[in-house]
């Protein structure tokens, strides 16, 4: 029996938002107001598509983007945590479910030689076009009213577990590590033996504590973290039990 670790990416594995970090490549390191005003709630991926067109129009090439993205700092203790997971892969399956994109996550993990820690990455598909522009698409279609149009993380997690179950793989416990509002939907899918680990001071923690105040707490256990060292301490206890 294994444990399943589910990680968000932005503000969880890395200490920034990869989509806003790419703006460092733009002229004067900022976007024009006209472009920023095009964002509509729940349609972030479409907005980022426009940002990538703007960068391409301004001659920003793949190499410059890659160089910029690989300077993003990891969250405190995260490199050690991922190294620990990598050394104990026989005990842990490990996936990323993120609203970033395949190109950014691939660059960042490979630059740090951490890509082998993860069994699968579920995120918006991105690629460079023949003209050298970065393009991004919605991860999937779904019917969840709570989630952004392009990604319901609960649906991703449920489909992954169903697929694993068909292969005869079941998990002793799911550990969900995230920070954002869009991590609440999958956390509410977790069972009482599972654990949600929201990052301290971020939206997910606030939403979970609001639910508890409204007397409709999440079913799983909750352990708040500020450094990934705390996550590692928990996992060490888990594998000793």
From TrEMBL:
Name the catalytic site residues. 8, 10
By its UniProt entry, which SUPFAM superfamilies does this protein fall under? HAD-like (SSF56784)
Residues binding substrate are 19, 99
Q: Which residues bind Mg(2+)?
A: 8, 10, 179
Q: Where are the transmembrane segments?
A: none
Q: Which GO terms describe its molecular function?
A: metal ion binding; phosphatase activity
Highest taxon listed in the record's lineage: Eukaryota
* Keywords, comma-separated and alphabetical: Hydrolase, Magnesium, Metal-binding
Residue spans making up a coiled coil are none
Name its co-factor(s). Answer: Mg(2+)
InterPro entries hit by this protein: HAD-like_sf, HAD_hydro_PyrdxlP_Pase-like, HAD_sf, Pase_PHOSPHO-typ
Question: Mind telling me which NCBIfam families this protein's record contains?
Answer: DKMTPPase-SF, HAD-SF-IB
Question: So what family is this one in?
Answer: Belongs to the HAD-like hydrolase superfamily. PHOSPHO family.
The protein depicted here goes by the name Pyridoxal phosphate phosphatase PHOSPHO2
Could you read off the lineage of the organism from its UniProt record? Eukaryota, Metazoa, Chordata, Craniata, Vertebrata
Q: State which gene encodes it.
A: PHOSPHO2
